[in-house]
Design a protein that fits this description.
Length: 211
């Protein structure tokens, strides 16, 4: 209601709720680990959450869903999906919304969000386009990189779901922060109550001194 200036539909509310719950917590990702490191110094929750937001700002962590829509816009029509994907891979470019640093199978969160899309009105042409791009991308990635498990990740269907309910892509990362903040807070409270100062050691791997 605050974003749109009117009461949202039940479908839109359920979709955003599904998204917020799905991304509530996800282990020691970059922003959550940052929050715990700051909390371990006995800084207060505000400082730890601000630090987590700083880590989330980078495109490798919190900024991927927006470029997924840029990719779909570039493809344009479902019939263009296969040729566009092949051209991108041939140019050595990355397909946004595919592959994950942790998962070597399909990101289970992607299926949760895709299931939410099925509850929305199905007259949205971008949903058809997204499915065509996903099919083309998975086939092309399996062929081009058979030694790597590159499957659909949460960012792909985050972009499609939030766009389908009218959330502007410029708000995707802030909305991610809204959903992740309760998870950050839980980690911060746990670190403050039971943890010690987080002080990782580093190992020198450069050349040995000559003498």
């Amino acid at each position: 209601r605050m974003l749109m200036g009117a009461t949202a539909s039940v479908h839109a509310i359920e979709a955003v709720d599904r998204y917020l719950v799905t991304i509530l917590d996800h282990g020691l990702n970059a922003s959550t680990f940052t929050a715990r490191v700051i909390a371990s110094t006995q800084a207060d929750m505000r400082d730890a959450v601000i630090g987590a937001m700083g880590a989330l700002k980078g495109p490798l962590h919190g900024g991927a869903p927006g470029p997924v829509l840029d990719m779909l816009d570039a493809v344009g029509q479902p019939e263009n999906a296969a040729s566009w994907v092949d051209q991108e891979l041939s140019s050595g470019k990355r397909l946004m919304g595919f592959g994950h640093r942790v998962y070597r199978t399909r990101d289970p969160r992607a299926d949760v969000l895709k299931a939410g899309l099925r509850k929305l009105p199905q007259d949205n042409p971008k949903l058809v386009l997204a499915e065509a791009v996903e099919i083309a991308a998975l086939a092309a990635l399996a062929k081009a990189k058979p030694d790597r498990a590159l499957d659909t990740n949460v960012e792909f269907y985050t972009a499609v779901l939030l766009d389908a309910v009218g959330i502007d892509r410029s708000l995707f990362t802030p909305l991610f922060a809204v959903g992740r903040t309760p998870g950050w807070c839980a980690h911060i409270l746990e670190q403050q109550a039971t943890g010690k100062l987080i002080r990782p050691a580093s190992r020198y791997v450069g050349p040995k001194p000559s003498s």
